[in-house]
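Field reference: sequence -> structure
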Amino acid sequence: MFLVIAEKPSVSQSIASILSAKEREDGYLSGKDCIVSWCLGHLAGYASPECYDSRYEKWEFADLPIVPKRWELSVAKDKKKQLAVLKKLLSREDMDYVVNACDAGREGELIFKHVYDLSGSSLPVRRLWISSMEESAIREGFANLKDGKEYENLCEASVCRAKADWLVGMNATRAFTSKYYKLLTVGRVQTPTLAMLVERQDAIDGFVKEAYYKAAVEGDGIHAVSEAIKDEAESIALAEKCNGKSAVITKVEKIRKKNQPPKLYDLTTLQREANRFFGYTAQETLRELQELYEAKLVTYPRTDSQYITADMERTALELLELLPELLPFLPGESMGKNVGRIINNDKVSDHHALLPTKEALGEDFEELSERQRNIFFLIGQRLAQAVSDEYIYEETEVTALCEGHEFYAKGKAIIHPGFKGIEDAFRNAVQKKKSTDKNNTDETASISEGLHEGMEIAGVRAESSRHYTSPPKPYSEDTLLLAMERAGNQDFDEGTEKKGLGTPATRASILEKLVSSGYAKRSGKQILPTADGRALIAVMPDDLKSAAMTAEWENKLLLMEKGKMEGSEFLEEITDLIDRVIAGCSAISGEEQSRFHQKESIGTCPVCGNPVYEGKKNFYCSSRECSFALWKENRYLSGMKKLVDKQMAVELLEKGRIHAKDFYSQKTGRTFAANLLMEVKDGRASFSLEFPKKKGSGKSGRSSGKQR
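Structure field:
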């Protein structure tokens, strides 16, 4: 008897049907020789600080850093029942081994490890590693189960990634929040990603457009322009000088060029193009893609490869035979079969590129949602493009001389559309309106074939035009994903294997966290930093904003997966960073700490000399280290139906006393006049009453008490 644990119920059902585990029980499916159960995504995660010590319930800077000596796991309430099922199954004496059938990647390893560790099980672990939910792939996977120990390095990388995110998130968030009296959420990958958004927005806001000018001549099938001219008068003068005159063609150069077909999709490039074509967010694309995977229509989603392996050549050829039936818009005559272009064993690590499956042939695509249909078609047409011919065109460059000044023109003529024919057919089929995205269009300018060197064009029309320099464009989800993928490239050696912020599997969730936390917002296809996001980055040290440092950590996690780096070394770097961050926070001045609370000071603290501000229930010292406060309602004054208002607080801080005529006497039921005196000792304020001398009397009265 063996136990299979998958990541989701839907995946478990697909596996169970192949293993003939058809008896439905509470939290699992059972068969003759196996049981198939499931997690509900992440069943457990590393516990929050207060689970280690109740004092961490209050965020105190003095308690930092928090670095668990023994990491504990916590389970969400709504997932405890399923965890109990799994723990019971993992402890059964009739189980020979357990199969980790969670998604074949870093996060799948972490999900399984947490459940396995919480159960205290000692069952041998075998690993199901598949890239497709097709029946043939699952059967082959179970026929070739791996020893779980082969994935120990991948598991260690997943654990270190999760611990690093916890250490940075918990410590840096508490450090900056406690110093600035404002919730400032910090993330190991989230914060440098936000920093890129803010940097781009700052560049846009600070951009000052500059005008420049061009003169153009036109006639006999040519429109040629001058180089950029800074002075408008000079451009106008040149146009006037050339208007009606003759121009001579001094150069006609034709260059044949080729564009290679694109590679297959990995997750990030698919998310980028789904955003570009359809406006889908990265998270939306991943969610729909996961559904397609579980429906056996596409291969494993969270891949970082754009190639397939040599042993998949026959599969690829079979898919190409099916594509015209799967993709009704596909111009079959333009499809190639150059499968060698997409084969590269060295560039496939855990999973090959995204592909449609053969099982999709029988699918009624009208049953799919529009998003799922669009994403499936996107993957299918990319396969068709990747194995098709090159796009071949001829570029013509022409130089014309008029009145001693050179003018330039460029044109393009298509020789062979190749893969571009498939791209155009797909766009026409799925896009409801013509795209204005220059990256997706191929507007072909033509130049008259009759042009040749020495040719004279008489009576050209000439005019001057004004142009402006353009600011950087705001990030779209497409371009931000690309920037995350390339982050820190300039800081790596050419041979470095992995670069970027996050991984294909995590980038979508990072963007969602930025939006849900209020640090970024979506505006159409654009993703922009909010005022809160810009304020956060303004106070972050370079270490937490550094894309290069975070990209280097991602590279080290990959080295860990390959057994080339110890997890302890990686986590030591993270704790060193936390120490630097906390040391930097310790040096933040009192004035800087009030950055987000620029309130009017009502006076000076009698204990430490820092400003005192009005709060909801008291008047408090702005220094976190000082405990002085004047409570608006306190025990001594409440019996006299008196509250400390703002004007009273100002006078008490300035003079240590006030005079009031409306103190209430419970004994007489009347109000009376008196002086209220404040004395501060050991940071605490106490009050007393002083009664003015009555005329003809040399005595004054006094009573005292401490505020609560």
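Note: The first helix runs from residue 9 to 18.
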